[in-house]
Amino acid sequence: MTHSSPTPPVHRPLRLWNLGWVVLVAILVWFLARFGPGMMGHSASLHAPDMALIQTQPFAIQLHIATALTALAIGTALLVGLKGNGLHRTLGWIWVVAMATTAISSLFIRQINAGAFSYIHLLSGWTIVALPMAVYAARQHRVMAHRRAMVGLFVGGLLIAGLLTFLPGRLMWQVFMG
Question: Residue 116: beta bridge partners?
Fold first, then answer.
């Protein structure tokens, strides 16, 4: 009978490119808030969020926002924290559920394209397919494949998709600048 000990947690220093994505998104949001209104023909100014706009939205949108923000917070912690330990696994499963819920709930949000799916729903489909593949890679101890898939989901499924919600006329634009 062989006894294998659990893999010790791996500590990787904060990678600058991980932090770089967060900084890049922050700069883009600031740039859009500062210069976007004039460039796109909208007049707006950055202000405290108008939470009443979110409260008046359908349940699918409220769920989508809540799970996306949960996934964003947990995903950021996972990117910069220790890998391979119990906390990483537990938070990872919570992140997977939050991402899946975010992607699935987005399929019920179709206000942009007059009730039909829009191009942003391609990110939802990609997330629904890639998420189980990334989990499978982790279960098979294919660390690099797991890492690439999860970082890709974080960047594409959260940061890029989230940035698109700040375009003029979209809900987050109205909440923060309308």
Answer: 113
